[in-house]
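--- STAGE predict ---
source: upstream dedup step, 1 unique chain passed
mode: sequence only
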Amino acid sequence: QVRLVESGGGSAQAGGSLRLSCTASGDIFRYYDMSWFRQVPGKERELVATITWNDDSRPYYADFVKGRFTISRDAKNMVFLQMNSLKPADTAVYYCHARLLTRDYWGQGTLVTVSS
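--- STAGE serialize ---
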């Protein structure tokens, strides 16, 4: 059974940094596309960044995080989101996501709160 567990959320001041981690278990994740999404109450979940299984040199970033956030993965089962220059608008629950072909898996989410 695939399981994703996020960690590293918390509070930060505007301009500060946080690093999120996602630990995956239950399968071989080398061939999974890994992403971070975020969601605020009353709004749809939105894609933040994706790193694909076959080309981790060109990750995708949503425009609202380009130049501030960096997604990376290790060779085994972890994916990270380094968040710099945080803004109050980055306040959300952040979710780790894994996809293999048509199968999607989600973590339980970790709350990030950025104060001005």
